[in-house]
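Final report, closing paragraph on structural work. Over the funding period we assembled a curated collection of sequence-structure pairs, and we close with a single example.
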Amino acid sequence: MALTVGDVMTHNVLTVSPQTPVTEAAERLAANRITGMPVVDEHGNLVGVVSEFDIIGKSGRTVGEIMTRGVISVSPQTPLEEAAHILTGARIRRLPVLDGAHLAGIVSRADIVRRIATRWTCSVCGSFERGPQPPARCHACGATTREFTLEREPAGM
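Its predicted structure, as stored:
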C-alpha cells in the first residue's frame, strides 16, 4: 500500500487573504514558525501562496501584490513519492493540497522527512524499521506488514 499525500498532510492550515497586509502575513509566519502559507479568496479558493521569499524579496503593501500565483498543487490521493519529486524538482518547500477547488491541507518537505524518519514496530517480536511505509516482512521474525504498528513520534528524535 503506497502512502499518499493525505496520509501526511497538515489539515488545519493557516491561510491569509489577498487583502491581508504584508506585515500581518510576516507576523503570522514568524509567530507560527512556518515559511509560507496559502492565500485564499472570500470563497476559500486557492489564489496563491505567500512565502518568506515573497515577503523579503518583493515590494507591496498587501499579500495579493507579492504572492506567488500559478501555484503547483496536489490532491490528497497523490502518491507521496510523486509529491516528493514535485517538491524537489520544482525546488519548493510546500504544496497546497486541493480536494477539487477546496483547500484540504498542505504538505511540506518537512512532513515527508518526518514520515521517512517514522518507526514501524513489529508487534510479534518488537523489532523496528524506519521508513515511509511498513516493510513487507519483518527482518527479524518474518512477520508480514499487517503486524507492524506506526509510531507517530519516533523515540529519540
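The helical segments are 5-8, 22-32, 52-57, 63-66, 80-89, 109-116. The two ends are 26 Å apart (CA to CA). We thank the funder for supporting this effort.
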